[in-house]
Amino acid sequence: MLTVDFQRFRVTPGDRVLDMGCGAGRHAFELYRRGADVVAFDQDAGELDGVEKMFAAMRLEGEVPEDAAAETVQGDALDLPFPDDHFDGIVASEVLEHIPDDMRAMRELLRVLKPGGRLAVTVPSWLPERVCWALSEDYHTAPGGHVRIYTRAELEAKLKATGFKVGGHHHAHGLHAPYWWIKCAVGVDNDGNPLAKAYHRLLVWDIMNRPLATRLAERVMNPLIGKSVVVYLTKPATPDGPVPAKETADAL
């Protein structure tokens, strides 16, 4: 299940692309299939072990171009272990809402992205996330959980203050918001609840089959209750530099 739209976030074979906070690797795998040289980066060694095994399986099954490359790197989003101007593109999907010092992480993304490079950022949308927080304290207080709810305006303002140029947005996964509301209402760890199980089966069926009816329904639902908002950005080819910290604080 991809959140980034690869018709908007174009990848050319041979592009060096970072999936920052890759988690289980869903975007890293798609980048690899498209011929990018992928770095799947995360703090969780267990997640990276699974991603590396999938990379190996994809190579073995011939699912990726021969010239594409993929590796995993463990580290901290606040201190990325890469040189300046290193990547042609970066995906940061569902990660910034976990980071207390999110603007420091944004500055690191700007630093390692080449001038003219592309960035796709996804975070939970304000309304679906606000409902989840209202329904369940456990949803957002678990260790490593979400520390903030972004409005799109706040997210874009912070990224612009860092030095990025905003290039458009959309919402995704409208069908998934009700599932998380159900989970929050019955207990986020209550996987045996009949309603949650039934809705989960529906989502799995939809992902596997992608019928026209649910595609059209989600297209209508996304702007209203899409679970994620996706913002596309670029690093200016001749950056003016980030806004000083005091001005950034005043603007927000």
From TrEMBL:
GO molecular function: methyltransferase activity
Annotated keywords: Methyltransferase, Transferase
Keyword Iron-sulfur attached: no
Coiled-coil annotated residue ranges, if any: none
Name of one Pfam family that matches: Methyltransf_11
PANTHER family registered for this protein in UniProt: GERANYL DIPHOSPHATE 2-C-METHYLTRANSFERASE, ZGC:194242
Designated name of the protein: Methyltransferase domain-containing protein
Annotated source species: Actinomadura graeca
